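Minutes, project check-in
Item: structure for the 586-residue chain
Input as provided by the requester:
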Amino acid sequence: MMQPDRTNDHANDHAGQPSPIPGPGLYIAIWVLLMAVSLFTRPILPVDETRYLAVAWEMWHSNNFLVPHLNGETYSHKPPLLFWAFHIGWNVFGINDWWPRLIAPLFGLGTLYLTVKLALQIWPQRQHISALAPLILIGCLFWALFTTMTMFDMIVAFFSVLGLLGIVIAWRAHGAGTSSCKGFMIFAIAIGFGLLAKGPAILLHVLPVALLAPLWGKHLEGLQTEAKPSGLLGWYMRILFAVVLGTLIVLAWAIPAAAAGGEAYANAIFWGQSAGRMVNSFAHGRPWWWYLAVLPPLLLPWFVWPRLWRATQQIGKRCLDDSGIRFCLCWFVPAFVAFSLISGKQLHYLLPEFPALAMMMAFMLTTSTVTKNVTKNATPNVTTNERPDSLQRSLWVPVIFFIFIGALIVFTMPGLLPEKFKTRYPTMTYEWAWLISIAGVIILWLPIKTLRQCIIALTGLSAATAMAVHLIVMPMMMNSFDIRPLARQLGGWERQGIGLAHMNKYHGQYHFAGRLTQPMALVGNSPNQLENWMAKNPTGRVVTYYNPGKIPTAAKPVYVRRFRGTYAVVWDVKTILAHPGIAYRK
């Protein structure tokens, strides 16, 4: 059984000189920098972020905090926790758009902190794992980009790690023969609020780890006595009780909400948007192997770092003897398989599993050995005789890779992009990609001597890349994704008593930014729908959409604004009546 030497927490540091264990200041600073750039460079993005704000706004101005609504209709796609979090900030700071943009990222920051706590529970005698895991996590380019976005999955990630922290606390108490109520209460609360955040998906992230506890907890580091098989029945009964308790938390909202929202809404929140979505996704359908194909790029820059691959090779199958690695595999593998089998797939669905990957990478890097002749039952030495210049050379592959990517974007991206894309999104400042290359050159120049410095350098490179991406797309975001000018115009017309209609499906993108208080009429979905609405609203305005180059020239619209890859065009009723068919998209 592999039991690494724990007398040296500072594995892989140069010349045996221990480096101080970094606190949270570094990853907090990186998070603040990423958020500052995000808030400066992009607006609230349609249609997802604007939709969530629209739902929260309708709950706010209607004073109905029980049943979410979107454009006057019940909104059953998501539970209300995120919207309630918006309301908390609005009560304190007043109505604004910056507070909602901080909610999910703050949960992401909290996830980094909980990752430290969870790693300390799993490997209490190897603090370097807990110190490096959050840096590796925020150093994943995928995490660095998504941590700035208003998405439900960051909230789910927070409660997933919180629930798993509770499970480890409970198992330690269970193995020691003491009360495990504290751990199970944490587990139950995490499940309850995870259900309020995004529904039953939280169970895919935490329940397999709890059920597989005998597999990973048998030799948990620092555990004085292991749980006996006779005590496992009590363990599983407590898991069941915690799941029931967590379910009661969400039912405290769902039952009165179902009664108030009606039969269709009740069916949707209890079935249609949970099990029904898993069996047959309504959107984002992709093949089962899709996550296998996209996972490597999501793990940049770590995926192309030879030092990590060498560390993994050195430890090999022996890492499976470590309870912490087993814990992380019981976390990642079942969720990865489950999401691969579900038809609907999005990149951010896997965010709650990234802390597991970060902890495993931290373990590999800090536990690997370069000493030879380690027998099967020998205790591997976690100290290393690896030269500092060897550590620095290990950075060449990922750093040069990113330097090349930066130069490639500057010199070739404008020519490689298809004309259709450049027509839809004409404004991009590719010169900002030099920031990636400059950051890489600086890293190659710095005297990096320790493993921790290597990880900090690559995390900084990833953060610089995420900032460069924001700066590159900033003109496009402000030109094609900023719906505020049109939304404010629509709000002004509504306050003047002018009727508003929207062709075909509406995602609520204008409601919050325009502070609209009435639903926009949906027209164009059935015969004579537009004509009937115009008859009742002779001074009304209709929002339509056209592809570039397809805006009719036979009449002058009231307002034109880029909207993502199309143009949002507003017509008045008189113009539509004078030019039949002009409102229909070409």
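Outcome recorded: The first strand starts at residue 69 and ends at 70.
No further action items on this chain.
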